[in-house]
Design brief:
Blueprint: H1 3-24, H2 67-72, H3 78-81, E1 84-97, E2 104-117, E3 125-138, E4 156-169, E5 172-179, E6 198-209, E7 216-228, E8 235-237, H4 238-242, E9 250-259, E10 262-271, E11 275-287, E12 293-304, E13 317-329, E14 332-341, E15 371-380, E16 389-399, E17 413-422, E18 432-443, E19 449-463
């Protein structure tokens, strides 16, 4: 099948879905979201898929550190009166080893972000900026690669966000220039360390519909030119981040439809001469008897080269199918998932996001031909009196991977992960989060090798004004 037909198929599908759903939708409303850094869920009602993590980070409004400044602005125009300034302080320690046992990446860094956002001018225009920094506390020479410092272990300070926002309607907003708070399956801020990814471009996002189970549509589309890696101070072209040497941007179009506890969404990413990625996902949640809840989900990705095929220099195509189920009871959730990759080519992760249901802490299981199953158990200890404490453990088993060129078999891998989080409920500590993670990957075929990854993260988010 040639590219034009494939691209037309995904573009037409997304457009028809969006147009059709618009006809069903009710009046406009605001849309809330869940970021990947949100707490470990305690029931299936709190579980979200890659397409359901749309929106922006919402700071929980704690008592302000500088309340007198806010008081001085109470009679000013909304552009000044509604100004917010938030501080996010983060400390992150990571030590990881590769399969060869000799390659170690290790660093301990302190940093965070100072975030500014104005109120609305004439209820239509606002501006904002974010200054990020990550500085070494302990950074052994030759041990770069932790994802919190530059490759040479030096610190980072960068104006990662500098943007304008235009309110086209009450619930349709355009983001202009350098902005970070995007969370889509294959293009995401990936805010799990100290500095997130930032993107340069133009994007329109809106919501149609009502809450309370009525049909609702979250939709968006735009064009991204550049991306800033979390360990860099510079923005580079989206195509360069993907691995090409030419300068190309990425067009994005998609939507997520929900009705009651059912959701269905699709998104398409197209970079001229580089790659086309189509992704779709659906889920259904239901309460069972005796406090049980169940959530079922399925996903499909299609990736292929386009145009002059400048990413790899040759044509390629691949796809992935995945299914997932979550069963919850009294604060505990059991998750089972399975993904199957075609043997055509390794799945690409060009712009930070990767939505595979079996993706774990160390391995993404996105190689050509990979089969993987995944089992995870999480528990919210608030149900047992330990308020704010939650944890999970998971195991992933992968097999069938082949070399994307020769199709020769490659070793399979298993992975074990453990994660514990504490979010105290005390008034002035509400924005504090402590997270400890450990991953162990085992190459169980061929040379029997192990890879280890340990991380400790402390985050404290609070408003200044």
């Amino acid at each position: 099948m040639d590219f034009e037909r494939v691209h037309n198929r995904f573009t037409t599908l997304a457009a028809v879905c969006c147009l059709g759903l618009l006809l069903w939708a009710e009046p406009l409303r605001a849309e809330e979201s869940i970021d990947q850094s949100e707490p470990i869920p305690s029931s299936v009602d709190e579980v979200t898929g890659p397409l359901e993590q749309l929106g922006e980070v919402k700071f929980r409004r704690l008592p302000r550190v500088l309340p007198w400044i806010k008081g001085q602005l109470k009679d000013a125009p909304a552009f000044f009166r509604d100004t917010t300034m938030d501080l996010s302080v983060r400390s992150y320690y990571s030590r990881a080893s590769k399969y060869d046992g000799t390659t170690i990446s290790e660093a301990w860094a302190l940093g965070g972000a100072l975030n500014y956002r104005s109120g609305w001018l004439l209820d239509r225009v606002s501006v904002g900026a974010s200054l990020y920094t990550s500085q070494p506390l302990y950074a052994p020479a030759g041990s770069g690669g932790s994802g919190v410092l530059q490759p040479d272990q030096s610190g980072i300070t960068v104006l990662g966000q500098l943007y304008g926002r235009i309110k086209l309607t009450d619930q349709v907003v355009a983001n202009l220039y350098r902005y970070a708070d995007y969370k889509t399956p294959y293009l995401s801020k990936d805010d799990g360390k100290i500095i997130p990814y930032s993107f340069e471009g133009y994007f329109v996002k809106g919501t149609l519909g009502e809450t309370g189970g009525a049909p609702q549509l979250v939709f968006g589309g735009g064009y991204f030119t550049k991306i800033k890696d979390k360990t860099s101070e510079n923005f580079i072209w989206m195509s360069e981040k993907a691995g090409a040497t030419v300068k190309r941007g990425v067009s994005v179009l998609g939507g997520l439809y929900t009705a009651g506890r059912f959701s269905l969404g699709a998104v398409d990413y197209y970079s001229n001469d580089i790659i086309n990625i189509g992704y779709t996902e659906g889920s259904f949640t239901k309460d069972l008897d005796n406090g049980l809840g169940i959530r079922l989900a399925a996903q499909f990705t299609d990736q292929r080269s386009v145009g002059s095929e400048l990413l790899t220099g040759t044509g390629f195509s691949t796809n992935q199918f995945g299914v997932k189920s979550d069963l919850s009871y009294a604060g505990a959730i059991l998750t089972l998932a399975y993904t199957l990759n075609s043997r055509g080519y390794d799945l690409q992760k060009p712009w930070s996001g990767y939505p595979g249901f079996t993706s774990a802490m160390i391995n993404n299981y996105k190689g050509a031909g990979y089969n993987a199953w995944y089992a995870k158990v999480s528990y919210d200890f608030s149900e047992s009196g330990l308020e704010g404490v939650a944890a999970y453990a998971l195991v992933t088993h992968g097999w069938g991977q082949v070399d994307q060129v020769t199709k020769a078999p490659l070793p399979g891998e298993n992975e074990l992960n453990a994660d514990i989080q504490w979010r105290p409920k005390l008034a002035y500590l509400t924005g504090l989060r402590l997270r400890v993670r450990y991953g162990l990957a085992h190459q169980y075929e061929g040379a029997k090798q192990y890879s280890r990854d340990g991380r400790v993260m402390v985050t404290y988010d609070f408003p200044l004004m």
